[in-house]
Amino acid sequence: MRLLAALGVTVLGVTAVAAQQPLAARLAGRVPAGVVVAVTALADSAAARGLPVDPLVEKAIEGGAKGASPERIVVAVQTVLTRLGRAQVALQAATPGVPPADAVEAGAFALSAGLQDANVQEVARACGPQCSAAEALRVAGTLTALGVPPAEAVELVRQTLRSGGKERDVLALPGRVEAEVAGGATPAQAAAGLARAAAARAAAPGQSGAPPHGRPPPRHP
Amino acid sequence: MTTVFHPLVKRFLDGELNLADLPPELHAEARAAERLLGAVDRAPVTLPAALDARVMSEVRRRASAPARRWWQRLAEPWEIRVRLRPWILGPALAAAAVLVLILARSQPPVPAVAVAAAPESVYVRFVLYAPGAHRVSVAGTFNQWDATTAPLAPAGAAGVWATTVALPVGQHQYAFLVDGRRWVNDPAAPMVDDGFGRRNSVVAVTAGAAGARAL
To answer: Which domain covers residue A78, as residue numbers?
Structure first.
């Protein structure tokens, strides 16, 4: 019995070490050893909270590739962890159940692009079951990264969904904003105009959510 | 013809007994045996003169080929004897399970930059105007920020560098690395803070798209 117990403990221990190995293996040679230890601890914390771990590893690797100091890498990884946590809380407040990892990641991206926690909640609520919260959040974040103020970005996504727009219509929004900007509008003006058009379609029964003469999104980059 | 000698005669031949130690009736047999043995010892063994040279030549040839020795070690079957006690099976199975787990978890990630686009990948063309650059590559979350995997090549017009990369569906952050030391954003793409005092470009790849588009 003692032998079995010892074996069980050994196997569990080896399994725990094995579970950490891929993370350390991914970081090995890419970041200083001290960063590996710190990121592993942060990853443990993230996993314990049900947060995705990959964004932390990717940020650490990015820091190593860019020659950032170990302290700066750890701070950047901590920032990502904080954003993931904020996104998770915002999503939990907006929708029932455990938010999927991709939505949490997208929420963290949206926060990094400039959205606030409340904006993340709004997008998730507007999305509901009809679309992927992850995609909607990525779109809102990308709109903000393009220069659209967060409130306008959220409003554009919300109005597009409210007008019956499908996921592809939401995905096309950044391209449509870029096209308007190329035509001389500011990002805010472009987003506001598209949101008004979507609101008008929502007010008019029987209209599709898709724009009547939507231009194809530009190839990018 | 087989000759069976008396055991005492055999001991005599082995040098354990003297002739005087044998009973008189065995003296004749002992002498005959001694004669026979002496005849055998004296019979010369004649071998072909070239045999020795041939054998040694072959030995030297085989001994001087390490690759051959290694190949033989690899190709020839090994005899391995395993003796198991029944109680060892439990730990052995547990160890095997752990090994499988480790191997499964240690599988290298699928490279983001593939030779051929997987079903859920889309070819994306990256273009940068970098006059005077000697070397340009693109690195991002899709290739673990490894700047060696996606180099750009001069593309027609002077200073224009380009490459096409198969990216998995999803959102990616990236930047160009110029001359191996200068990180440059894509001016045609949205940008976000990278946490290191710079900014990353953002590209989103959607399923079914003919190319990537700003999501």
So the answer is: 1-94
CB contact under 8 A, B192 and A171: no
In a domain, A104, yes or no: no
Helices marked H in chain A — which ranges? Answer: 2-27, 33-48, 54-65, 70-94, 101-113, 117-127, 133-145, 150-162, 167-171, 173-182, 187-203
Q: What distances in angstroms separate CA A196 from CA A36, A56, A57, one per listed residue?
A: 49, 38, 41
Predicted TM-score of the model (pTM): 0.64
> Does any domain span residue A51?
yes
Identify the domain boundary among A77, A94, A111.
A94
Residues A217 and A125 placed together within one structural domain of the fold: yes
Please state the domain count of chain A: 2
Confidence of residue B119 (pLDDT cuts 50, 70, 90): low
Consecutive sets of 10 residues in chain A, 221 residues long: mean pLDDT of each?
A: 45 44 86 95 96 96 96 97 97 90 96 96 87 92 95 95 88 92 94 94 65 44 42
ipTM over 0.90: no
Q: 92-131 in B: which are within 8 Å (CB) of A?
A: 94-95, 97-98, 101-102, 105-106, 109, 124-127
Distance separating alpha carbons of residues A184 and A65, to the nearest angstrom: 37
- Asked whether residue A123 falls in the same domain as residue A209, the answer is yes
